[in-house]
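Provenance and format

Records in this collection were gathered into a single text stream. Each protein contributes a sequence line and a token line. The two records reproduced below are adjacent in the stream.
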Amino acid sequence: MSESRWVEVCGIDDIDEEDVIRFDHEDRTFAIYRTDKGDFYASDGYCTHEKFHLSNGLVMGSVIECPKHNGRFDIPTGSAKRAPVCVDLRTYPVKIEGSTVYIHI
């Protein structure tokens, strides 16, 4: 695996409030979120339950609901919040520089 670094993801206007997008980098996939308060977060892209991509899910405030079985995760912490998910998501630091979103991977 390559060394940890900040990677440019998208522009801040590319994600609406209470939305999520998919970001693929090298051999990994991530979910990039914008909460109802306008804050940006990042996590692994697949649900820990059955590996369905979270970019197809529903963001409600600071929670992402997986589109396959409606399991929920807390976006800022990645913690599993509703069955059938029971394994937390891995999260990544996010920074905004100017109008660009970066994640540290």
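Adjacent record:
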Amino acid sequence: MFSATYRRTLGVAATFLLTFTVILGVLYPFAMWGAGRVFAHNADGSMVTGADGQVVGSALIGQEFDDPALFHSRPSASGYDALDSGATNLAKGDETLLRDVAERRARIAQEENVAESAVPDDAITASASGLDPHISPEYARLQIPRVAKAQGLSEDTVAGLVLDSTQGQGVNVLLLNLAVLDVAKG
């Protein structure tokens, strides 16, 4: 009924199907699951727990902090909504963007009691994702006097916390705020 060549071709095809089903349907998913367990902190979203053991956020996703006793994050074009992340796509000269930046600059200068020219760019502009968990060390240093006064800590103590929380070119705001709260509790 079937020629020898057809049966041989069918046998090779079935062997390949079975082999790749096992490799891609069993071994590869198992290997990825295993890697996820080896690097569980990263694979599970780098969740951060507070002093009470409750999850307070992710070290990888920014969130809004508007309490004057805490360090503030970068603005977010998405309102810190991870499901709606992204930039505004407004052009550099767009009137809405220019107005928003000017308003943020004036508000932050007043809040931090500094000249508007002292407000760093990351304090007034959203990151590309709108979910950046980091601020620049300059923006963190700008906020030290306000946070120190509100928490009843010395500026040197808070400056040390900023330095300890600096990771490369950025300061993780969630981790910094947790450190501030921990020191303020005594």
